[in-house]
């Protein structure tokens, strides 16, 4: 097991705005960024390609930028531009990885919103799809920031795996603590890892939608189900303030998660 400088970034001290699962909801993302004080940059076609904060804050995305929502390409264009400009960090989510595999030509099952993402991306140039593929494949699976005080992982991460680059750490960060079984709705059975978390680092994550972002020990899930008609949530660090905006509509219906909202 090794530690990677791509994962462990003690020099990144913030302040940060950590944003939950976007899932292709560009309209809500733009509204949230503007609420947080970011200034949007648009290209000649009036498409958002960057967002910078006048006070030097940096956005951090917990993964699952793509799938289910109406504008996966728009979300990718904006977040890629923000990362290129040094205005954002992004960790990989399970949906991001699966889309990358599909774009690479791997055999994957196009469900849970993947088919819609591929259809949306097919309307864009091959060059844009290649850029998106390179971006998604290069995403770290988790980040350790601010001298180890803050950990960002899509599905969360126990203390023993903070900063570790291994198959176990990657699997946990992408999918959570699963039993390997699926429930009656076809969803993986996940264990509530945060209930046993006792680490000193704050862990911010997403993956499994909740109605409200609340603390469980020193961990908080920021996926508040925007694509299912909930909210898009940001956590301001180190201020420990929650900022959220309501979804414009229900973009994707799910038998389980949609019932939360």
Question: What would you note in describing this structure?
Answer:
By secondary structure, this protein is α/β, with parallel strands linked by helices. It has one domain: 4-Layer Sandwich (Purple Acid Phosphatase, chain A, domain 2). Helix content is 24%, strand content 23%. The strands form 4 sheets. Strands 1-7-8-11-13-12 form a 6-stranded mixed beta sheet. Strand 3 and strand 4 form a beta hairpin. Helix 3 crosses helix 5. 46% of the residues are buried. The model has no long low-confidence stretch (mean pLDDT 93).
Topology:
Blueprint: E1 8-9, E2 16-19, H1 26-35, E3 39-42, E4 48-52, E5 58-61, H2 72-84, E6 88-90, H3 94-104, H4 114-121, H5 126-137, E7 142-145, E8 150-153, H6 167-175, E9 178-182, E10 188-190, E11 202-205, E12 215-216, E13 219-221, E14 231-237, E15 241-246
Parallel strand pairs: 1-7, 2-5, 5-6, 8-11, 11-13
Antiparallel strand pairs: 2-14, 3-4, 7-8, 9-10, 12-13, 14-15
Keywords:
single chain, 261 residues, alpha/beta, Purple Acid Phosphatase, chain A, domain 2, 5-stranded mixed beta sheet, 15 strands, 24% helix, 23% strand, globular
